[in-house]
Amino acid sequence: MKHQEVAKRPTIYDVARVAGVSRALVSLVLRDSPKVSPEKRQAVAEAIAELDYRPSNAARWLASGRTRIVGVLLDDLANPWFVELLDGLQSVLGEQNLRMVLSDPTYLARPGESPVSAFMELRVDGLVIAGDVQPDDDLLRATAHTPTVVVGARTFELPSADVVTNDDVAGACSAVEHLIGLGHRDIAYLTAPTGSAALRAGSYRDTMARHGLQDHIRLVQTDLSEHSGFEAMNSLIDSGRPPTAVLATNDVLAVGALSAADNHGINVPSQLSLVGYDNTYLAGIRHLSLTSVDPVSREVGIRAARLLLERMADPALPQRTEVLTPRLVVRNSTAPAPKS
């Protein structure tokens, strides 16, 4: 049996032949040059459609010195917080015909390799570092000569990078104030070994102390997973003095805590109030209806993309930091404290 031959990918020369024009004129059309007549432009467009021609990115890179690619390094692709952030980034970068390429240290980096290495091989035009990524020497070198913006974290410094984030301190404070306003005194906090969680934990402590509730401060360490939220809530319930309210450092932990409460027959919110952080799609699921702090992730993404475009246009700009104000979204997982 004769094997079917794989069709050759059409080239710019094929487009020129079908359109009846020169290769140089096709190149002008691809660059959207105003020097091409409408008739010739139409002929080239029809040839491109007929052949399903896709311009070579490599050739474009050689011609312009630009890849039109922005690398986005996420600290954890499994965290739903990034959905809104990426939407905000894309809404701005897409208008400039820039493409995002994603990576994270857990799933996409090769063993023993810096997660930023693939971006450097692609020669990306810009970098977005999202979340609590651990900086290494390769990342420091990359950001020294590639326009970079850090989003959602303020716990490490890249001398040449701009920073856009939400105000973690204000966000956690608003959540604790909400619970105290509902009459809760015994409020626990599910924390994690990340910079943003540490900022929120400090705000939780300060807010509790400011209301004279320092004796009720309880922090439980987690690894940010639903299972660790479940186990943390179990430990609080089994302690003999379960809290009447819990603030979790993200929505995933709060969902785990909700499951643990349900397993113990504890009703949310009449017996236990729960507040998450990030206001992800999980919080809005009707069955969960989780009160959560909205870190305005889409706005963070929009502003980060704009700063990145400005820095790509002028790498000599001074370093800038923008901290956006979060908002508390109250749903059905919080209610007045149960009466003693």
Secondary structure elements and their pairing?
Layout: H1 12-19, H2 23-30, H3 38-51, H4 57-64, E1 69-74, H5 82-93, E2 99-103, H6 117-122, E3 126-130, H7 137-145, E4 148-151, E5 162-166, H8 168-181, E6 187-191, H9 195-210, E7 218-221, H10 226-238, E8 245-248, H11 251-263, E9 273-277, H12 281-284, E10 291-294, H13 297-313, E11 321-324, E12 327-329
Parallel strand pairs: 1-2, 1-3, 3-4, 4-5, 5-11, 6-7, 6-8, 8-9, 9-10
Antiparallel strand pairs: 10-12
Helix pairs in contact: 1-2, 1-3, 5-13, 8-9, 10-11
Q: Can you identify the CATH superfamily of the largest domain? A: Response regulator
CATH topological fold name of the largest domain: Rossmann fold
Main sheet specs: 6 strands, parallel
Shape: elongated
**H/E series:** HHHHEHEHEHEEHEHEHEHEHEHEE
How many E strands? 12
How many helical stretches?
13
Identify the CATH class of the largest domain.
Alpha Beta
Strand residues, percent = 15-25%
As a percent range, the share of helical residues equals 40-55%
Please state the average pLDDT score.
90
Give the C-alpha Rg: 26 Å
* Adjacency order of strands in the biggest sheet: 2-1-3-4-5-11
Structural class: alpha/beta
Can you tell me the CATH architecture of the largest domain?
3-Layer(aba) Sandwich
Domain module tally = 3
Separation of the first and last Cα atoms: 83 Å
Residue stretches low in confidence (pLDDT < 50, at least 5 long) are: 1-6
